[in-house]
Design a protein that fits this description.
- The chain is α+β, with helices and mostly antiparallel strands and about 425 residues long.
- It has four domains: about 170 residues, Alpha-Beta Plaits, CATH 3.30.70.270; about 55 residues, Orthogonal Bundle (DNA polymerase, domain 1); about 100 residues, Dna Ligase, domain 1 (2-Layer Sandwich); about 45 residues.
- The chain is built from 13 helices and 17 strands.
- The strands form four sheets. Strands 5-6-1-7-8 form a five-stranded mixed β-sheet. Strands 16-15-14-13-17 form a five-stranded antiparallel β-sheet, with no helix packed on it.
- The protein is globular.
- Its main location: cytoplasm.
- Pfam families: IMS, IMS_C, IMS_HHH_1.
Length: about 425
């Protein structure tokens, strides 16, 4: 723990849903739920208007519809979320060279590395307010909640206290006063199972946890978790803000218009991606030891599997063989909407003949199925030859209904078309790869 409140945690409020409301004027101020568009789907993000009805992340789409049937259920537009996240991270890096992204919508910032006159509470408070205003400006109206404190743990706790669109600064010396009344759930790693163990031991608040000795916590929770909780209950957290200065992995992934169910096609796609990863590694003079595949299922569940080699490789064929074997461990019968291959554990040397001599692989022809014209995901960006840009309001029975509006227009008109209307097209953003 530092002697100054110089660790900032920024969390974009209801990020995915907020981006949708920004880009779809007719949804502003209304309940919006991203993900969970089918009965087997899962809620990714709910707007604050939807949260009032008890809808939350990881809830099943069926339950979300039961709680808030009048919400707009959207399938998600990851290209828009990534683009907005990049703008925010650039703002953070303009403030300090030490920025540690945690996800698309949150990051730690080390204010001690920023060019500030001092780290007094008044100074960092003003910095936080300016930062929130700048994020609002560059994102076209999105809000962020900020916490500033003497450690990562306290900064993240503080950023949860004044949501949405707020800020909390924890003055040095007041950390325990803030923590003691709180439930143990606020401590990272205290999930339902750990909380139940603590409850059975009569521990509900951090103040009660603080009274337990380290030996008792170790006996109750094990060495690593017991020691960690003992420290955090006393606001002891010395973890630094770590900026990523170099590539830690090389990866390629693709999202597909229609769910893929053909196993041979999945293997062909992974093979093609593995070859591209190998090419990128060789161009960068790198190799890697850990091969990972990423698979997003039809219901937005995202799975990953990894295998670590004894020596690094940059060979696309070798990477592809491992990727296909990892796919064999997954149940993809319901369909796959995203596949990806990555290599990490990077090095600047290669182990020759890692797999010895191998026969030439059978070439798998990769021909993606044409997207079914009758499946238009709700919320997807579209363009009409005459009416311009819009988004899918809904579809079914061979008809697709589009609302024509953008972030820069007022709420727009709604029109319906045949699902196979040649004048209506899905908008395909430029690839990030």
């Amino acid at each position: 723990m530092r002697s100054t409140a110089s660790v900032l945690h920024l969390d974009l409020d209801a990020f995915f849903a907020a981006v949708e409301q920004r880009d779809k004027p007719s949804l502003r101020g209304k309940p919006v739920i991203v993900g969970g568009t089918g009965g087997r789907g899962v809620v990714s993000t709910a707007s604050y208007e939807a949260r009032r009805y008890g809808v939350g992340s990881a809830m099943s789409g069926r339950e979300a519809r039961a709680r808030c049937p009048h919400a707009a259920f959207l399938s998600g537009r990851f290209h828009a979320y990534r683009a907005t996240s990049r703008l925010v991270m650039e703002v953070l890096r303009d403030l300090s060279p030490l920025v540690e992204p945690l996800s698309l919508d949150e990051a730690f910032v080390d204010l001690a590395a920023a060019d500030l006159p001092d780290l007094e509470v008044a100074t960092v408070t003003e910095v936080g307010e300016r930062l929130r205003a700048r994020v609002h400006e560059v994102t076209g109206g999105l809000t962020a909640t900020v916490g500033i404190a003497s450690s990562k743990f306290l900064a993240k706790v503080a950023s949860e206290l004044d949501k949405p669109d707020g800020m909390t600064v924890v003055p040095p010396g007041t950390e325990l006063d803030l923590l003691r009344p709180m439930n143990v759930h606020v401590i990272p790693g205290v999930g339902p199972a750990t909380a139940e163990r603590l409850r059975r031991a009569g521990i509900h608040t951090i103040a009660e946890l603080e009274l337990v000795t380290q030996d008792e916590l170790v006996r109750l929770l094990g060495q690593a978790q017991g020691h960690g909780l003992w420290q955090l209950a006393r606001a002891q957290d010395s973890r630094p803000v770590v900026a990523e200065r170099e590539a830690k992995s090389v990866s390629v992934e693709g999202t597909y218009d229609s769910d893929i169910t053909d196993r041979r096609l999945m293997e062909g796609l992974l093979t093609r991606q593995a070859r591209e990863v190998g090419t990128r590694l060789r161009k960068s003079g790198l190799s890697g030891r850990t091969v990972t595949i990423k698979v997003r299922l039809h219901d937005f569940t995202t799975l990953s599997r990894s295998s670590t080699l004894s020596s690094p490789t940059d060979d696309g064929g070798s990477i592809g063989r491992i990727a296909r074997s990892l796919l064999g461990d997954l149940d993809t019968t319901g369909g796959v909407r995203l596949l990806g291959v990555g290599v990490s554990g990077l090095a600047d040397w290669v182990q020759e003949d890692l797999f010895g001599e191998t026969a030439d692989e059978e070439e798998v022809e990769v021909v993606l199925p044409e997207p079914p014209r009758r499946t238009w995901p709700p919320g997807a960006d579209v363009v009409h030859d005459d009416l311009g840009p819009g988004w899918v309001w809904g579809s079914g029975a061979g008809v697709v209904t589009v609302r024509f509006e953008t972030a820069e227009t007022p709420p727009g008109p709604v029109r319906s078309f045949r699902a196979d209307d040649p004048a209506l097209h899905r908008f395909e953003p430029p690839s990030d790869d």
